[in-house]
Amino acid sequence: MSNRRHIHKAVKEQLVFMAARMKSCAIAHVTGVSQRTVNRVIRLKRLTGSVVRVPFAAGRPRLLNGIDASYLESLIKRTPDLLLTELQSELQECRKINVSTQVIHNTLRRRGFTWKQVSSALTHFAFEFITLKGQPSCSQKK
Q1: Which of 4, 12, 15, 19 is deepest in the core (most CB within 10 A)?
Q2: In the predicted model, what is the mean pLDDT of residues 93-106?
Q3: Percentage of the chain lying above the pLDDT 70 cut
Q4: From residue 27, how far is each of 9, 51, 138 by CA, in Å?
C-alpha cells in the first residue's frame, strides 16, 4: 500500500526553490515530504519546466476528428434540415467513416449546433425521399 497524498503546486514550486540552496535530504527533513518526492519534483521541473504533469488530452480519443466535424458542418450549412441518420449515411458514403448517430449528435453539440426533434412518421418519409433520390451528395473524382 502506498500512502500517497496530494501536494499542492505551490509547495512543489517551493521545493524547487529550496533545491537551489539545499540538498534533497535536508528539504525532505524540513518539509516532511519524502526525499523521493523531492527528487521527482525537481527532475520534472528540469525536464518539462513545470512541477506538475499535465495530461496531453483527457479521456478517450474522439471518433470524429476536426476535418470530419467540419464536413458535417458543411453538410448542415448546405442542407440545414438533414436528419442525423442522413448525416450518418453521408459520412459512411463520402468519408468511409462508420459511427453512430449519437457520436454525430455529440460532435455537433460540441460545435454549438442545436436542433428540433422530428416525429417518427416524418423521419420515415424523409428516409424514403432520400432513398428515391438515389445519388449521394458527395462527388468522388477518380
Answers
A1: 15
A2: 93
A3: 78
A4: 16, 16, 65
Label each residue of the chain as H, E or C: CCCCCCCCHHHHHHHHHHHCCCCHHHHHHHHCCCHHHHHHHHHHHHHHCCCCCCCCCCCCCCCCCHHHHHHHHHHHHHCCCCCHHHHHHHHHHHHCCCCCHHHHHHHHHHCCCCCCCCCHHHHHHHHHHHHHHCCCCCCCCC
Contact 97, 64 (CB under 8 A): yes
Residues whose CB is less than 8 angstroms from the CB of residue 64 and which lie 6 or more positions away in sequence, other chains included: 72, 91, 97, 99, 103, 104, 107
pLDDT per residue as tens digits for the range 125-134: 444 444 444 4
- Per-residue pLDDT of 37-90, as tens digits, reads 999 999 999 999 999 988 777 788 889 999 999 999 999 989 888 889 999 999
Q: Which residue has the cell 453521408?
A: 90
